[in-house]
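User: quick one, sequence for these tokens?
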């Protein structure tokens, strides 16, 4: 696996104030991005199982990096998300093969839970293109205070034959949430919705 990874970039954000008001407890978000070689760049291939296998490995590597950067135990993570940016010679299906079939299980194992679907996005772009990692509460999708996103970019990636694969985690929701919905203290965390 490591021979296919060119770079890993870890980005940490800490929000101390929002809307001109201090945040009671700083909210931290972290994205871990792996830039990998796309073995199918420039050609159509029916079997994408090698990308699915890479997704499994990245589902462990990337959240472990993010937790380490935030110095946070997995149980303290509130939100998560995943995304991929495919270079010009790749297909969106290559991103789907990395993100969907198998990345989620090891991601949840690293966090210790994660009953909700992991929000995701994928797009094609050039080196340095920004892409968004959608975020949602890891155990209860109906927690509106945690509907969010994190924009990331890697200045030299993805090259035409690469894919930037990213995960993000947070230790809180949006600062000063005021749009209602399920509240943190009411979460059951069993069905992924409430």
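Assistant:
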């Amino acid at each position: 696996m490591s021979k296919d990874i060119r770079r890993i970039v870890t980005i940490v954000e800490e929000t101390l104030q929002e809307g001109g008001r201090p945040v009671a407890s700083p909210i931290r978000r972290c994205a871990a991005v792996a830039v990998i070689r796309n073995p199918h760049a420039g050609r159509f291939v029916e079997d994408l199982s090698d990308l699915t296998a890479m997704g499994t490995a990245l589902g462990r590597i990337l959240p472990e990096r993010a937790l380490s950067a935030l110095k946070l135990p997995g149980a303290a993570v509130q939100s998560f998300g995943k995304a991929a940016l495919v270079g010009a010679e790749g297909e969106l299906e290559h991103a789907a093969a990395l993100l969907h079939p198998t990345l989620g299980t090891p991601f949840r194992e690293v966090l210790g839970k994660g009953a909700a679907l992991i929000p995701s996005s994928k797009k094609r772009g050039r080196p340095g293109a920004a892409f968004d990692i959608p975020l949602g509460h890891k155990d209860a999708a109906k927690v509106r205070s945690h509907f969010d996103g994190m924009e990331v970019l890697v200045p030299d990636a993805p090259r035409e034959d690469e894919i930037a694969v990213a995960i993000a985690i947070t230790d809180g929701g949006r600062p000063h949430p005021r749009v209602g919905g399920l509240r943190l203290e009411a979460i059951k965390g069993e069905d992924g919705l409430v």
